[in-house]
Design a protein that fits this description.
Shape: globular
Largest sheet: none
Number of strands: 0
Distance between the termini: 33 Å
Number of domains: 1
Radius of gyration: 14 Å
């Protein structure tokens, strides 16, 4: 699913129900075809989700910025 469609769906569905979107890793430095990293990615996701919950993530209502158009370029 494209991020644009996902954001569109989130914006529509949150008018119908309560949504809680945990921000995804961004950028992900592992290919989606590299299953050798599954255990590591699951552990990172678990830890990130715990931090998100502890920092009040459930109270946030905006679409996570990692799902919107953005850049990973570093400014010098």
């Amino acid at each position: 699913m494209s991020m644009r469609q996902l954001v569109s769906d989130i914006l529509h569905l949150r008018t119908l129900t309560s949504l809680h979107i945990v921000p995804p890793f961004c950028p992900v430095d592992v290919s989606v075809f590299n299953f050798a990293q599954t255990e590591s990615l699951l552990q990172r996701a678990y830890e990130k989700t715990l931090r998100w919950l502890e920092s009040g993530g459930v109270e946030r209502t905006k679409v996570p910025s990692a799902l919107t158009i953005h850049s990973h370029a570093r400014e010098h």
